[in-house]
Amino acid sequence: MLDAEAALAQASADVGIVPREAADEIAAACRADLYDPAALAGEAHDAGNPAIPLVRALTARLSPAAAAHVHRGATSQDVIDTALVLVARRTLPGVVADLGRAADRAAALAREHRTTPMAGRTLLQQAVPVTFGLKAAGWMTALDAVAASLADADDRLAAQLGGAAGTLAALGDDGPAVAAAFARRLGLRAPALSWHTDRTRLAALAGTLAVAAGAGGKIGLDIVLLAQTEVGEAHEAGEGRGGSSTMPHKRNPVAAIAAVAAGRRAPGLAATMLACMGHEHERAAGAWQAEWATLPALLGVAADGAAAIADALGRLAVDPARMRANLALLGDLPLAEAAVTQLTPALGRATAHAVVEEACRRAVAGGTSLTDALRAAGHRVDLAPERYLGSAPALVDAALQARSSVGTTDA
Amino acid sequence: MLDAEAALAQASADVGIVPREAADEIAAACRADLYDPAALAGEAHDAGNPAIPLVRALTARLSPAAAAHVHRGATSQDVIDTALVLVARRTLPGVVADLGRAADRAAALAREHRTTPMAGRTLLQQAVPVTFGLKAAGWMTALDAVAASLADADDRLAAQLGGAAGTLAALGDDGPAVAAAFARRLGLRAPALSWHTDRTRLAALAGTLAVAAGAGGKIGLDIVLLAQTEVGEAHEAGEGRGGSSTMPHKRNPVAAIAAVAAGRRAPGLAATMLACMGHEHERAAGAWQAEWATLPALLGVAADGAAAIADALGRLAVDPARMRANLALLGDLPLAEAAVTQLTPALGRATAHAVVEEACRRAVAGGTSLTDALRAAGHRVDLAPERYLGSAPALVDAALQARSSVGTTDA
Amino acid sequence: MLDAEAALAQASADVGIVPREAADEIAAACRADLYDPAALAGEAHDAGNPAIPLVRALTARLSPAAAAHVHRGATSQDVIDTALVLVARRTLPGVVADLGRAADRAAALAREHRTTPMAGRTLLQQAVPVTFGLKAAGWMTALDAVAASLADADDRLAAQLGGAAGTLAALGDDGPAVAAAFARRLGLRAPALSWHTDRTRLAALAGTLAVAAGAGGKIGLDIVLLAQTEVGEAHEAGEGRGGSSTMPHKRNPVAAIAAVAAGRRAPGLAATMLACMGHEHERAAGAWQAEWATLPALLGVAADGAAAIADALGRLAVDPARMRANLALLGDLPLAEAAVTQLTPALGRATAHAVVEEACRRAVAGGTSLTDALRAAGHRVDLAPERYLGSAPALVDAALQARSSVGTTDA
Amino acid sequence: MLDAEAALAQASADVGIVPREAADEIAAACRADLYDPAALAGEAHDAGNPAIPLVRALTARLSPAAAAHVHRGATSQDVIDTALVLVARRTLPGVVADLGRAADRAAALAREHRTTPMAGRTLLQQAVPVTFGLKAAGWMTALDAVAASLADADDRLAAQLGGAAGTLAALGDDGPAVAAAFARRLGLRAPALSWHTDRTRLAALAGTLAVAAGAGGKIGLDIVLLAQTEVGEAHEAGEGRGGSSTMPHKRNPVAAIAAVAAGRRAPGLAATMLACMGHEHERAAGAWQAEWATLPALLGVAADGAAAIADALGRLAVDPARMRANLALLGDLPLAEAAVTQLTPALGRATAHAVVEEACRRAVAGGTSLTDALRAAGHRVDLAPERYLGSAPALVDAALQARSSVGTTDA
């Protein structure tokens, strides 16, 4: 809020309606350490918003000459909304950077493991094999997408200056010029109209933040599942991480869990922002006030989630041997689809399907492999998982190629 | 789902791995009227998804030659996800068009009423005057923004084809080619990777739909408030609309209310989509299934909301005389800010402020106008509301100008 | 809605203000099959609610003598709100029964497996052992709790009759008597006041439904996790359930997944109901209308979830041998806490802790068991998991005892 | 958390497994001012939860003899969950008291204004008259209901003690006795089973908190609407409340607005708690961690909302003259229903309805009153609003009577 007041004073001086010395004096007094947040919060309760006591306290620190120009032409909502946007501006680049780091690490994993076979798992049951690189490429794609969305959202952040009811009337004919200078001073967009009660920008930002948190949460969930004692295909490496002195075997994936937690907190906060779009006329009686704590909380959740997933991916240790061991748990039964494919040229698709289906039944009943059951029926197949990876490596290459062609940094 | 199966068959024929006659036969059988949705729903319960019984029923209608090629290379999720996207594709253009119509009407109101004075209202208390055109311009800006976001979202809709676990393994080396042809056939984007468990696209769409519903809800709320018996500045015109035979005075703003209702339903549905991003590995056990009813419901809510706000704005009758009468309710007290502005050149800002504050107290205590109270103190001001509209008309012009320069249609 | 109209007519006859023959004629016309829902929905759009066209259609079917008494004293909201409550009344007993069946089955599992050891899992990492009976007892307790809450909610369902604005004015002095008779006819509570815009009852019901769905979702999630290929400790038994002809090894836990999905859909719907409590004055302009589709959807989700978890538990097949095998995966390392406990009497707690911690390190480093590492250091412990189940069996007994003492049915 | 550790030590001494002196020493060290929350938060990040560094810091302050007994038998979740419950315990009585004060004030308003006529408003259009007492009685009923629900929830708060995986194994056979003593020490319920991953209690509490916030929000909304400049039937009295030096006419209903804002924040937070019920096995990997900030936030929102609505009602100034003036805005047209009622004995209901409908049309067209239009048609009616209040006063009496009979305090 103080940055908004300082920018307003300087913008007014830029336009020539406030003396530069007054603006400089105001700006110099706009230092957070000069004020007592707890006292201001107490006064805000009676005033109905925190800008009123802050402007009072700011004014009290100034010479009469400067005091006359504080907050000129603005209303409380101009200051509070601009402050909300500035909080977003200070948060988003870090979130985008963390997501970018996470995506870079996922890209490196995708490249390294483009042909590392592991069990595909649908409904948490083993299905046909995939490669760990393909899984990592999917993480990368999602992370790049949400990073790009948040960078766009950051770029669209707009200053708020409309005066008491959006007409800038207290600034006479200079309103639009001051509003433009105000936005320029803050490095924010200058919208055609002030957006006192048009919350589409903030609501869209909230949605984008929740999608970003959700994307990190999905990856965190995959890591938690891979790190299960009974799966053991990946874990978060690091001295003393998530350990326990009397549980020496535990390697709790604490960063992945933090990413999951962020993904779970975001939707409710985003829903609040979305449900608060109904701002009455020129200033809302409740919906606006409900945003004050919600948007910062959501920004914090998204930031925590991005940092956590970057951390989790950064320290992810992958165990290809365990992946292969798990792939062998069910023998070659998950490869039945491959058997159909191999027998189709000779038998036709329908017959191939029937033959494999029957062999599957016999294999399960007899405790043998599908390969043996088919051989007993006179058919030869090769059901090594690494020969049924389909287009996984090609898809990884395509995703990495698409990434580099749009210029996304890739470590 | 049938459209997805038909497109898959034809795409496979395009690539040369399925005979064209088989594809044609499959496509001909992909007509919804040939199937019994209730029976399929019953079987879906046991199967775990609706694609399994549908493929079974589709296969049963075909010659053996064609039957061998049904659903080839695909998994249930390919069909269901693509079907979800196709529902979005069929819904979004209509939503965008309705929002565009609403924005056009708001633009016309903004132009017509750029200087029509009315009370600005903050926290539902009268504040300084605005123009109805400025209010309508704010509506227009929000509607244009959400229409553009939804058009973008529509443009980004992507087909889903990944096979059992995303590797397209059952299609041998032809997977990527079939996936590309499949998307081309459906007029959807062909993503680098299948997005079985990367729900960023759907979640972002959900957020955008909720923002659109919320934007309409805000406008609907403004209309409901303007239509209050005690305010009466606007109403929805139309024979028999929202009337009642023994309540002949009532003019219920039913379309605006429907827009408000849509704005209230959307956030919870969007939150469900956001909270369902945590899809495990290659297919989710619960989060995916929860999307099936939720996204269509949200599309329906957004569509209802867009149609309702277009309807409400289309029939909005505005009463400038009542606006002016309401402006006079508090006399010239809401113009105190204007008095300060007018006295500042002569008195300096600080003194002007003190003089007006004192006059306000006297006016309230004495039941006189602020103008009279100031005159009694030796100061002359002109507090006609139409001379304190600030930059309202200029802002309206700027918003309309910005609109036409980006080529948005404007009736 | 028709049931509400019929009850209103009969209640008015009970009080003596409508002739019984007219009431009987009205009631006879209140059969859903006589009306065209699609046509009514169309008219509802313009009228603003579905009760207006329904009353019109109902009236049109009656003799003039009876027609004069249709809907007498009531407003649309009386009919729609009462109808919402009747939908709840028809749904809740089935949900309570399904939850009761599920709880009975969980109780049976708890009793059967009160001492069956399995790995406790925290953060999805193996921790100290539990018994499957203890896990099932936790499920039982939660299911009993939500069933009891929903039974209470069902018992509190109240009829709505207030007339145009809640004063029952059109009924003269007979209003309260008619309202009481109306509630009696429907088997609903008769509240002191009509609750047109006091939505605490419905919002509390929504919360309770979501808690019930969430309780089922937690159990479903546990089952999905137990059914993982790599864990394999439980599965849903049943011919052709969740199977696949070419994935013969898959045993998709489709009922558990449906319970998870219900648990994921409910919170957003409940949030909508909670966010819709802000009903303006005597009838809401948007918040009420948003409830119409939301509460039935939530009732459906809760019903689906309850049926699914009853189904999942009913067919749950448990594999104690696999539980024991999984318990052995980490050797005796998860029993370090037991080692401390056993050594404490001799060494004191602090020294025992230090000794075990050091032995843990050596065991992990040397690939030996903790027992051996301790023995090498001169300490003897017995780290069989079945001797470190703590109070698990006693807790199961206590939970079953608490259940039977409150008279909950237990199969 | 420190209170939980102290209670655990003392409970263990009560049961005889920890020396009393050690317990006393531990308890004495459990003072929040001895620890550095920021430092603990930093360590919590790596440890995965805040209990681990707290126990470490607590232990470091103790003699070796006492240190050996810190946190004995407990796991981090026991401490954190119990701490969450203790936060609820400290918050809820104040919330219940504020809601009770608000209800008392609503009861006083209901009694005072049981016959004060005002416009009933449906869809924000004037409908038949109500009394302000009836509106206040509706507020009272809702407030009493949510206060009672929260008092029940407070009464059901349960301690958490289960040890590493819920078996209390580290306490040998003393587990249940320690758990009982632990609950007793804290004044909390001792559940049959620990509820590590059964979140039904917390989720139900969250729902109840949101319903309470929503009930206050509805009343706040009514007050905001009554306080509109154009309505002016009530305002929040108080020196300098929500005022503005140059907006001397504004009387912003800041407390009511705060209640509305609380009502808008609660649903999203409650949805997060509901969506976090899916706790895996014996400790959740993400869903639990997401609760830590959410439940306290929701408790705070409910507390703010309760305090705000008590404040708003406590200072509510009602203007019966303005109510009557607003009632006259539409003349006697809103009384058409009364006219039908008065003419029914003579004309029969159907004819009476037709006659009044025709007269309504003429009155609107001719700009006359309905009384005059009916008189011109030969019918005499008395359409004074105070004679068409229906059962409003009786309903107020019944609600007040129901209140006093259940012993709710009434000022």
List its salient traits.
homotetramer; mainly alpha; Fumarase C, Chain B, domain 1; Fumarase C, Chain A, domain 2; Ribonucleotide Reductase Protein R1, domain 1; two-stranded antiparallel ribbon; 4 strands; elongated
Task: Describe what this molecule looks like in 3D.
The structure is a homotetramer of 411-residue chains. With 411 residues, chain A is mainly alpha-helical. The first copy, chain A, has 3 domains: 1-72 and 164-194, Fumarase C, Chain B, domain 1; 76-158 and 195-328 and 394-411, Fumarase/aspartase (Central domain) (Fumarase C, Chain A, domain 2), CATH 1.20.200; 333-382, Ribonucleotide Reductase Protein R1, domain 1 (Orthogonal Bundle), CATH 1.10.40.30. Helices cover 63% and strands 5% of the residues of chain A. Chain A contains 16 helices and 4 strands. Chain A has helices at residues 2-15, 20-29, 37-47, 51-60, 64-67, 76-112, 132-155, 175-186, 200-226, 254-275, 287-314, 320-327, 336-347, 349-366, 370-376, 392-405; strands spanning 117-122, 125-131, 234-236, 316-318. The first copy, chain A, has a two-stranded antiparallel sheet with strand order 1-2. In chain A, a hairpin with a 2-residue loop joins β1 (117-122) and β2 (125-131). Chain A is elongated, with a radius of gyration of 29 Å. The relative contact order of chain A is 0.12. The mean pLDDT of chain A is 94. Chains in contact: A-B, A-C, A-D, B-C, B-D, C-D. The interface between A and B is large, with 101 and 101 residues.
